[in-house]
């Protein structure tokens, strides 16, 4: 399976929603504490287990996340440690990039998510405790959502309702928002420790997952969220990212500071169906391809990006 070496520590990896062989990778120097960043756009080679770099964009500060536009196949946005969001267009020459830099957040931007249904807007989550809503045709954000009492690490649009999203925060809550409402519509006190990631099930718009420093992943039904639908235990350290399968209702993938990527079937009792231990440092980025069933990617602080088919060994050539 293909492996790509990055000069800096990996933070996030995302499959393109338009090209099944294309991915974007966010990286940061010195484990994201201090130094530069780089966004890599990479292509899987159709005839060999190689990954080719299409282009790379350097930033003065670390890059913590990337998200592909859902409406333009060559556009992506990057979350930068200086509080900015950089917009890139791979169809344009390097000197024309970034297209723009959106600078409103007072602290690091840690998470991004593009609206998959409306396709014209995206969200940013920041360590300044806020979430912002953006469209690419406006230089300023449309709205700022302030309720969290600590860093917001992750945001996720609901796959069915174009105005609804969730945010995960270090204040130990997941909040559900509707952009038409003045404040959050729901507060889920999900964990005893910081919540680092959240995602919506792609087949059940009422099901959401949260991942925490407490090493667990919890499933919640927003119609009755006093107790979780299920709790997935198996990681040895904080769960950094969680992502539902775009192809199978019952599958979810996670990555952790325990250096593993785990695949779960949350509808069965023995939920852990796959554990991949290919990383040698914190595994902090994971994604599942929307276009190819079972195609997975991960990145970590070991400066490696792996792309593999579910059930295969990520290290196998």
Task: Walk me through what this model shows.
This protein is mostly beta strands. Helix content is 0%, strand content 50%. The chain has no helices and 28 strands. It has a four-stranded antiparallel β-sheet with strand order 1-28-27-26, with no helix packed on it. A four-stranded antiparallel β-sheet has the order 2-3-4-5, with no helix packed on it. β7 (75-80) and β8 form a beta hairpin. The radius of gyration is 18 Å and the shape is globular. It starts with a strand and ends in an 8-residue tail after the last strand. 51% of the residues are buried.
Q: What is the topology?
A:
Elements lengths: L2 E3 L3 E7 L6 E7 L8 E8 L6 E9 L3 E6 L6 E6 L3 E6 L10 E4 L5 E6 L6 E6 L3 E6 L7 E4 L5 E6 L6 E6 L4 E5 L7 E3 L6 E6 L6 E6 L3 E6 L8 E4 L5 E6 L6 E6 L4 E5 L6 E5 L6 E6 L6 E6 L3 E6 L8
Antiparallel strand pairs: 1-28, 2-3, 3-4, 4-5, 6-7, 7-8, 8-9, 10-11, 11-12, 12-13, 14-15, 15-16, 16-17, 18-19, 19-20, 20-21, 22-23, 23-24, 24-25, 26-27, 27-28
Main traits of this protein?
4-stranded antiparallel β-sheet, mainly beta, globular, 317 residues, 0% helix
Uncertain residue segments: none
Major sheet: arrangement of strands:
1-28-27-26
Could you tell me how far the N terminus lies from the C terminus, measured between alpha carbons in angstroms? Answer: 5 Å
Percent of sequence in beta strands: over 45%
Portion of residues within helices: under 10%
The SS-based structural class is mainly beta
Reading the helices and strands in chain order gives EEEEEEEEEEEEEEEEEEEEEEEEEEEE
Number of helices: 0
Q: In angstroms, what is the radius of gyration?
A: 18 Å
Shape descriptor reads: globular
Mean pLDDT: 97
* Strand count: 28
Major sheet characteristics: 4 strands, antiparallel
């Amino acid at each position: 399976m293909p492996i790509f070496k990055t000069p800096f520590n990996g933070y996030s990896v995302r499959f393109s929603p338009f090209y099944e062989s294309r991915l974007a990778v966010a990286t940061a120097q010195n484990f994201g504490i201090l130094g530069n960043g780089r966004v890599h756009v990479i292509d899987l080679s159709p005839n060999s287990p190689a990954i080719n770099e299409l282009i790379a964009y350097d930033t003065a500060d670390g890059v913590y996340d990337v998200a592909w536009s859902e409406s333009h196949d060559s556009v992506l946005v990057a979350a930068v440690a200086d509080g900015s969001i950089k917009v890139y267009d791979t169809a344009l020459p390097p000197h024309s990039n970034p297209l723009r830099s959106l600078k409103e957040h007072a602290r690091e931007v840690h998470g991004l998510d593009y609206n998959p249904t409306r396709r014209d807007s995206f969200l940013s989550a920041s360590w300044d405790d806020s979430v912002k809503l953006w469209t690419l045709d406006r230089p300023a954000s449309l709205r700022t959502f302030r309720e969290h009492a600590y860093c917001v690490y992750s945001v996720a649009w609901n796959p069915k309702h174009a105005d609804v999203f969730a945010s995960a925060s270090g204040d130990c809550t997941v909040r559900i928002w509707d952009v038409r409402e003045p404040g959050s519509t729901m507060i889920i006190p999900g964990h005893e420790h910081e919540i680092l990631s959240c995602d919506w099930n792609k087949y059940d718009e009422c099901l959401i997952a949260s991942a925490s420093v407490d090493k667990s992943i919890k499933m919640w039904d927003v119609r009755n969220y006093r107790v979780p639908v299920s709790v997935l235990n198996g990681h040895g350290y904080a769960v950094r990212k969680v992502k539902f399968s775009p192809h199978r209702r019952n599958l979810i993938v996670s990555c952790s500071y325990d250096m593993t990527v785990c695949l779960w079937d949350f509808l069965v009792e023995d939920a852990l169906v796959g554990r991949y231990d290919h990383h040698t440092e914190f595994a902090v980025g994971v994604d599942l391809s929307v276009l190819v069933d079972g195609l997975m990617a991960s990145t970590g602080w070991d400066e490696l990006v792996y792309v593999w088919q579910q059930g295969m060994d990520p290290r196998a050539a």
